[in-house]
Amino acid sequence: MLELVKVTSGYGSVAAVEDIDITVPAGACVCLIGANGAGKTTTLLTICGLVRAFSGTVRIEGRDMTARPADKIVRAGVSLVPEGRRVVASMSVEDNLKVGAYVRGGDPAIADDMDLIYTRFPRLKERRFQYAGSLSGGEQQMLAMGRALMARPKLLLLDEPSMGLAPHVVNDIFATIADINAKGTTVLLVEQNARKALSVASYGYVMEHGRILFADTAEALARDPRVIAAYLGMRAAEAAAG
Amino acid sequence: MTTFLQQVVNGLSLGSIYAVFAIGCTLIFGVLNIVNLAQGAFFMVGAYLGLEIALLGLPLPLALVVALVGGGILGMASELLVFRVLRLRGGHKWMGLVASLALARLLVGIAQEVFGTAVHGYPPNPFTAIVWEIGGVRVQLLQIIVVITAVILMGILGFTLQKTSVGRAIRTVAFSEDVARIVGVEVGRTILITFFIAGALAGAAGVLLGLLFNVVSPFMGEHMLVKGLTVMILGGLGNIPGAVAGGFLLGLVEVFSVAYVSSAFRDAIGFGLIFLILLVKPTGLFSGFEERRA
Ligand SMILES: Nc1ncnc2c1ncn2[C@@H]1O[C@H](COP(=O)(O)OP(=O)(O)OP(=O)(O)O)[C@@H](O)[C@H]1O
Ligand SMILES: [Mg+2]
Question: What is the CATH number of the domain that holds A15?
Fold first, then answer.
């Protein structure tokens, strides 16, 4: 579904990710974990065409989509749920969902998909005419996911969906991600919450200082001493303390 | 009392034109955080385009349509020739200000060459001739038509922005160009459409003002630009409902100041109003429900 081959990209002339290879097979749920500033967001933005690749190739369903304009990437079936949600605060919940279906033009099935989103997230239906800016963090995350789903993506990119949310809301969000994947959408999930990410993903990449350090199945990573020390141990200690 | 009502009628018809013109200015500001100083020149060109159509003996609705399309095309040209070039090269916003002013001067110069500096008037039309006297208040059919046309234009714009895919794209770009890209909006094309709409509103306002006061001159746009900027500040930068309210307010205030104070103070009072409002409410009279940039 998605293939990154020796991709280097960054801002201005400074590389933020270097020489990375990532493969996401169709139907899979793959996660990308790593500390602050590792280059996870940059990787996703490079796939989406918002950050320009200096070198390397981004392939979507086998087609070279490197440095194509962002709208072409969405039309090719890749949607991003961005870090910090980025819902359009000054628009209603309903209009945010409608703008998510922008690339589908006048597709008559848009109304049905909107109902599916409202069934999945009843809270959004209750608040459909409210400004998105008035929603809670968890509701905004649901809206950002709903907006991305409205494009009917084949591949959904999620950038730290658990950021800043209460634990029970995080559980809901991850259950939703697992369900979206089970219904056939391929998922690439970026998370600092490695424990949660590895619980829904089947495969994972570990990123540090702009490079992929290693990759393995989610089960193996969850048992890997390096992962436990760097990403799980600390969280476990935090959890024990909290 | 009759003078009062008379000024209300005059103020509303003038204000409706201010509102149409100012909406264009504030729309561009809302989307790009820039001011297009060539909007006044588009207004002037719109008035001349309408005048030429009317002089050919063609119907006035056609004059309005030609001015809308002509103004819109000029608006797109200003984006393609000035603003897009500056954005791509990373030019400072001030350069857009100066370059759009230069474009305005160019259009005024061309108008002077083509039409001369003399003031022209629209040929007689049936709407000016029809006047009702209601309790001493004179209402021209033309005034009513101007207000109705302005309200229809604002209604079409409101519908487009709120209820159509293009409108949602414009509002999303206004919020954040990156968010617009994420959902697949072609940002460049959407900005171009925004410039078309703003230019079209300016062109249409030109015909309406030319008809209402029967005065068309190469310099009418500079005057209008100042009004547009005034209304934009009154209503809150980028705030469209604010521009509508501010347009009507400025029209009323000007007409009343001419009637009750002196025509010499007409412009001074408009600016006085700005000072007063900015002292009390620096975000504009009607702030609070505009599209906000992230
Ligand atoms: N817009 C930008 N301009 C310049 N440098 C940037 C920009 N965004 C990120 N960087 C830099 O690129 C590097 C990678 O950042 P990135 O946001 O991709 O990391 P991340 O893994 O997503 O981190 P986090 O977990 O904090 O979201 C960092 O060193 C960061 O400082
Ligand atoms: Mg990040």
Answer: 3.40.50.300
Q: Do A181 and A104 form a contact (C-beta atoms < 8 A)? A: no
pLDDT category of residue B278 using cuts at 50, 70 and 90? confident
Compute the distance between CA of residue A60 and CA of residue B193 in angstroms, rounded to an integer.
31
Q: How far is CA B157 from CA B3, B170, B196, B218, B246, in A?
A: 34, 12, 12, 27, 17
Listed in sequence order, the DSSP H helices in chain A are: 40-48, 70-75, 93-100, 110-120, 122-126, 137-149, 167-182, 194-200, 218-223, 225-227, 233-241
SS3 A188: strand
Q: Give counts: helices (H), strands (E), chain A.
A: 11, 10
Residues with CB under 6 A from ligand 1: A 11, 16, 34, 36-42, 83, 192
Under an 8 A CB cutoff, do A50 and B175 touch? no
Of B120, B137, B145, B288, give the one whose Cα is nearest residue B215: B120
CA of A185 to the centre of ligand 1 (A): 27
> Shortest CB distance from B179 goes to which of A79, A86, A103?
A86
Backbone angles phi, psi at B120, to 5 degrees: -110, 160
Task: Report the domain count for chain A.
Answer: 1
CB atoms within 10 A of CB B85: 14
Which ligand is the nearest neighbour of the Cα of A16?
1
**The ligand 1 atom nearest the CA atom of A192:** 25
Return the percentage of chain A with pLDDT > 90, whole number: 84
* Within a domain: A64: yes
pLDDT at A233: 63
Extract the tokens encoding A119: 């069934």
* For range B165-193, the mean pLDDT: 96
Written as one letter, the residue type at B176 is S
CA distance A49 to A158: 15
pLDDT tier at B126 (50, 70, 90 boundaries)? Answer: confident
- CA distances, A170 to each of A40, A174, B121, B228 (Å): 20, 6, 69, 49
Quick one: average pLDDT of B88-96?
Answer: 82
Q: Are A69 and A241 in contact (CB under 8 A)?
A: no
Give me the mean pLDDT over the B238-247 stretch: 93
Using a CB–CB cutoff of 8 Å, tell me whether B113 touches chain A.
no
Q: A190 has which bridge partners? A: A32, A159
Q: Which of B175, B181, B183 is facing A100, going by the closest CB pair?
A: B183
Atom 4 in ligand 1: which residue has the minimum CA distance?
A11
**Burial bucket for residue A81 (CB in 10 Å: 0-12, 13-18, 19+):** buried
- At residue A2, the 3 state secondary structure works out as strand
B184 and A80 within 8 Å at the Cβ level: the answer is: no
List the one residue out of A161, A132, A156 whose CA is nearest residue A79. Answer: A156
In this prediction the ipTM stands at 0.91
Nearest chain B CA: its distance from A38 CA (Å): 21
In words, the CATH class of domain B2-280 is mainly alpha
Q: What is the extent of the structural domain holding A237?
A: 2-86+152-241
What DSSP state is assigned to residue A134? G
